[in-house]
Amino acid sequence: MEQCELERELGQLHSESWGWALACCGRDRELAEDVLQTAYLRVISGRAKFNGDSSLKTWLFGVIRLTARGELRRRWLWKRRADSVAEIDFADPTRGADVMIEESDRRARLIRALNTLSRRQREVLQLVFYHDTTIEQAAEIMRVSIGSARTHYERGKKALARKLASEGET
After folding, report:
1. 104, 91 in Cβ contact below 8 A?
2. Separation of alpha carbons 31 and 3, rounded Å
3. For residue 56, how many other CB atoms are within 10 A of its CB?
4. What does the mean pLDDT of the chain come to?
5. What is the pLDDT of residues 20-35, one digit of tens each?
6. Helix (H, G, I), strand (E, B), or coil: what is residue 123?
């Protein structure tokens, strides 16, 4: 794939890539920006090479995930000596305050419920529901077998439904 074509494709995937970077970084905007920039640099510089074995999106999400995991590991060492970074919630300013508060509360409950799942269950659900990947693509991104991804998907959905139901969410 030529450099110009690669940059164009990255541009088309940027919105989804940003969402996935946020998910991989625990909704930490600053960390997600760093991770996404580092992942893009790896791709553009050729340090991460697309070999065509999967879709560009699947491959790129894998690069972002691995970059995030490396950065999270590095920051974990620093966080042992510093305060943790606060979670940032982004609200749409064009909506009414009551709607924004309700949506913010629901989003917070969903995030709390997702955070009770195992890392793999959380990742596969985020990839399938928020990033429009198939379970097979999620398995590639997560570097697990398709059977393992399906198991994490099904168990994660059931656990998430139970958690939300116990909190009165539907």
Report:
1. yes
2. 26
3. 17
4. 84
5. 999 999 899 999 999 9
6. helix
Contact call for residues 140 and 128 (beta carbons, < 8 A): no
Residue 59 burial by Cβ neighbours in a 10 Å radius (0-12, 13-18, 19+) = buried
pLDDT tens string 73-118: 777 656 554 443 334 345 555 556 666 677 777 888 888 888 899 9
Which amino acid, 44?
A: I
Length of the chain: 170
Q: What's the rounded Cα separation, in Å, for the pair 36 and 58?
A: 15
108: left (phi over 0), alpha (psi -120 to 50) or beta: alpha
CA–CA distance, 113 with 56 (Å, rounded to integer): 31
Give pLDDT tens digits for 56-85.
999 999 999 999 998 887 776 565 544 433
